[in-house]
């Protein structure tokens, strides 16, 4: 498909709004009580691995473009997009099927009592800061990634470079903080 002269602003805007909206809706739906047919408790680790691999691909992509390996740069970015897409689908599936998990909730009653808060101390605020910035940027990054890709496929190098200077650090932050969030909340999964 020739994307050179296509204006895909509206489809990109629709996808950029639809993804965070659908994720938010799925988080607030009641737990369906559906069995996945496998132990879904493995998925958070899988998500951390996907985020780690995405971060590695983003670093590789940056190195490739700085060293003028343009084809490798494109491949690394397409792999990062693929990994992020798999992550999104798996993440939504997990959070739709899994019971809620709360940071610091040792007894899994979804209430942080005084003793649980005391154990956490200030790490609770660090966790929520990282989680909040991760979530916000994960939603914000979608149109940036899509427009970066579009500009690359259109061979509009100047506009691709300009938007990618914003996209790369946000996407890298989202990938890395996804791993940090997993490491921090992992002890509280059921």
From TrEMBL:
Disulfide bond listed as a keyword: no
Matching Pfam families: DUF420
Transmembrane segments: 12-30, 42-65, 77-97, 125-150, 170-189
InterPro entries linked: DUF420 (IPR007352)
Keyword Ribonucleoprotein included in the entry's annotation: no
Keywords from the named record: Membrane, Transmembrane, Transmembrane helix
PANTHER family xrefs: DUF420 DOMAIN-CONTAINING PROTEIN, HYPOTHETICAL MEMBRANE SPANNING PROTEIN
Protein name, UniProt field: Putative membrane protein
């Amino acid at each position: 498909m020739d994307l050179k002269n296509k204006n895909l602003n509206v489809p990109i805007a629709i996808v950029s709004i639809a993804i965070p909206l659908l994720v938010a809706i799925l988080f607030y739906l009641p737990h369906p009580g559906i069995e996945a047919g496998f132990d879904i408790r493995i998925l958070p680790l899988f998500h951390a691995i996907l985020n780690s691999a995405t971060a590695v691909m983003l670093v590789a992509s940056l190195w490739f473009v700085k060293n003028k390996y343009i084809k490798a740069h494109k491949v690394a970015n397409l792999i990062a997009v693929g990994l992020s897409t798999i992550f999104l689908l798996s993440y939504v599936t997990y959070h739709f099927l899994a019971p809620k998990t709360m940071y610091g909730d040792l007894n899994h009653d979804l209430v942080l009592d005084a003793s649980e808060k005391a154990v956490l101390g200030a790490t609770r605020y660090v966790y929520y800061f990282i989680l909040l910035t991760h979530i916000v940027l994960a939603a914000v990054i979608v149109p940036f990634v899509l427009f970066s890709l579009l500009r690359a496929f259109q061979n509009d190098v100047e506009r691709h470079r300009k938007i990618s200077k914003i996209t790369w650090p946000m996407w890298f932050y989202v990938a890395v903080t996804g791993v940090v969030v997993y490491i921090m909340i992992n002890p509280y999964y059921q």
